[in-house]
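In this section we walk through a basic example: taking a raw amino acid sequence and producing a predicted 3D structure, encoded as discrete structure tokens. The instruction is simple. Fold the sequence below.
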Amino acid sequence: MPDMERWPTTRLLSTAARLVEISWNEKLKSIGLTHAGVIAMQVLAAKGAITQAALAEVARVKAQTMGTTLARLELHGHITRQRSDSDRRSHVVTLTDAGSAALAEAVKLEQDVLSPVAVDTARLREELRIVVRGLAGLPAPEQEPSEGAADAADAAQS
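The resulting token sequence is shown next.
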């Protein structure tokens, strides 16, 4: 990639994100998952059974996009969808035992994505959380910042 030293930060970030997603999707393919599917399953693991519309909102994707992702997950037995008892127009999505097992495997595979790169992943994660919170308009966490975050804040003020 020519002359990355001159690239703006936004281009570096978007290029890195695409390359990470491509690498992760290649690894996930071996267990029949995609990045989008893992995100949906992580939300279900954290929140429990929720409607398809709520799942799409939490994942910050359109309902139609989520529907396509869920159809693939349902086909592989990772989730189930059932009509809501309270609103027959909506579906409640639940993570299956097979989905939980696949999600655990996906987490292991994710750890391998950046292993060939000499980067402090803990500090990178903290910096990325700061970017996401800031751009999404989310409040900063209430706990004390990690050492890496404090160093980053000090560097930003310098």
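Looking at the output, two observations stand out. The CA atoms of residues 65 and 135 lie 22 Å apart. Strands lie at 50-51, 79-83, 91-95. In the next section we compare this with other chains.
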